[in-house]
Amino acid sequence: MTKLARELLFPLIAVVAAFIVGGVLILLVGDNPIVAYRLLLGSALSWPDGIGYTLFHATPLIFTGLAVLVGFRCGLFNIGAEGQLYIAAFATAWVGITLANRGSWLLIPLCFAAAILTGAFWGAIPGVLKAKFGSHEVINTIMLNFIAIALVSYFTQYHYKVPGDPILQTAPIGPGAYIPHLGRFVPGFPERIPLNIAFILALLCCLLVYLFLWRTKWGYEIRATGSNPFAAQYGGISIRKQIILAMSVSGALAGMVAINEVLGNRHRYYDGFSDNYGFTGIAVALLGRNHPVGVILAALLFAALQHGGIYVDGFSEHVTKDIVQVLQGVIILFVAAEGFFKWALGRRLPWNV
Amino acid sequence: MLELRNITKRFGGVLANDRVDIVVKPGTIHAIVGENGAGKSTAMRIAYGFYTADSGEIIVDGQPRDIKSPHDAIALGIGMVHQHFMLVETMTVAENIVLGAEPGTSLGLDLKSAGAQIRQLSEEFKLAVNPNEPIEHLSVGQQQRVELLKALYRHARLLILDEPTAVLTPLEVEEFFVILRRMREQGKTVIIITHKLSEVLAISDEVTVMRDGKVVGRVQTKDTNAAELARLMVGREVLLRVEKTDAEAGRPQLEVRNLSITDINGTKRVDGVSFEVRSGEIVGIAGVEGNGQTELIEALAGLIDPERISGEINFEGKNLNALGARVRRELGIAHIPEDRHRRGLLLDFTLAENSILGVHYRPPVTAMAGGVFLDENAVQRRASEIIQAFDVRPPNAALPARALSGGNQQKLIIGREYRVDPKLLLVSQPTRGVDIGAIEFIHRQLVGLRDNGCAILLVSAELEEVTSLSDRLLIFHDGRIAGEVNPKVATLEEIGLLMTRGH
Predict the structure, then answer these.
(1) Which CATH number applies to A2-338?
(2) Of chain B residues 35-54, which have a CB less than 8 A from chain A?
(3) What ipTM score was computed for the predicted complex, to two decimals?
(4) Is A234–B337 a contact, with Cβ atoms under 8 angstroms apart?
């Protein structure tokens, strides 16, 4: 219990501090912070739209948060979730377009496989580069983001767009690849809200990632490598294999964003669909203390802010939805400052009794 | 000179100092001994103003004094040299010494007069330190002398030295003691905190023994001996000599032929070494640290890139050169590494998780679904077996390894490696930073393993340890075997010469 309290303490401090800093800013621009926050959170938690959209926005953040988490646990900083989810989304749409007239029983598994495998492949590239040549994954994942985004834009623009369509998006996927909205199963929850099966899948992935990391020998090896690569090597663990494995799993999780977006929402590849999901995933993993349960909570918070921000924009006089960016930024700042707090506290503790 | 009266200090729930009385006479070398956590450092940090006592008095030169900070202590002529040096590597000796007490005006730094003063102090105490040398060019022993100079420059009359010999080679320790004696002749008072009994007997005039935060003994050095001090420290009789029968060596298990190892910079660290270790014997390797022993053990354990190794490593007649650490472990080679934090433990992992490192991927630790999942019960069972058999304290498998003391971490590692029933054990510095009580236990375990037929290759910087445990002793110098001696008959001088001169 005390351990749980300790784990929750810093994230809570970060969130509360962010709201205080944001409140001061709202005062400075001449609005009432309480009114603005009520608007922000009230709209994010209203039934059914607020909750529905918050959960819908949380879905990709859970996937990318998990992706970053798996990397972190192996001592790797995967900044490439953005590129991984873009390339996976395009590949998923490609399968859905190419086999458009097949039935669900074939198309859905194939589209799932496309999302997962393409993401894993794009994640594995920097993993292999690091394992074989020691090149740093941060640089390589950033580079691969640019490559992925440019590549899918090119293919969309010149090969897969419906002729004459002014929007940069592909042709629609076949209806056999659609996955249902949750509104179809939940009474009183309208089907127009795009929250879909992918959300359930995201929760399932949290459980799977937990089991994988903490209950299997592979997870043990990944965590050992992240915790102390020298001791891992001593224990007969191949660090190179763990790096490639962790980056592949990380990329696969990021790629699953495609299931929510392509199969569950727009039913096509829409260029620039990601609202920085890959980068926000870093914040989600950090705020969630690199634990799957923490990732769910942090993703819900960020999603609520994102959705509520739209209403703040529309209904308050001076505050714009940029306030959400400020809150996110301050949260990340405080989460990153944890090391500082620990250091400041630690100085007053005995280090050799 | 210095007197601590009835000092009590609590950290949270821990009573670090419990009504401690220490009297240090002027012009003496006073040793404070005790196991890790006995409260020696705490008492001295209180005297130096690092901590404030909850109650009690500090008396300096007969006057009760309020020492609130190191600044107050320095003003009273008390200096302290910490176990970890506090030097700026890129700055010169003189710059380091004046740091915080810069001479000259507030804008101009007068290093010249400081340099002259340092040179004079250095000559007075025969420290042989050049004020203009950058710290990074100095050996550890020289750096320590810079720390001494730092205190002397601030007119310290009483020097508190926290585990000063922990970082020194045997030869440097000798030189260091000469310096301490010279300081005593010049009228300085020295307090030395240590847990090495041979050094206490060699250098001190009086000894204060601490245990569990209390003073449990005050003796004149000339009236005591190692056995008595050990008993006071541990609170029971301690066997200082290793009891063992003659080895019944069997067939050769490990055969090393013409082994050379280069480091990543291409420097040769081990140069054409050949030897063998037979089952049922302990082969010791003595040598000043950094003469290739570390690389040798890591190469045998499979932790060095085969491309940097030439020569042959054979185990039970099988060539190991190309095999990784995992395969070597499977063949029956266990390894107790010299650096338990870097190599031996996953500090953030629990004791249970640490107890399966190296066997985590195979039954009985894994179970179900093709051996993918860890069997939580089997892991817990293994952990509690090791914790029980090796008396790891506190006996809580859910704690992170970081929470244990050094000695208990070491017991966990030894227990883990012992548990796999090795045919060959590679062991480096098995008792570094470990309390006397645990040292005795670890030595008994190693001898027991040998008696069960295990071949053991032992590297230790502690000459006494390596001579008393080994059945055969190889002496390493500059990456080569400088000689082999029979540890039962060889003198320490003979071994010391081979270690330092190589012939």
Answers:
(1) 1.10.3470
(2) 37, 39, 41-42, 51
(3) 0.88
(4) yes
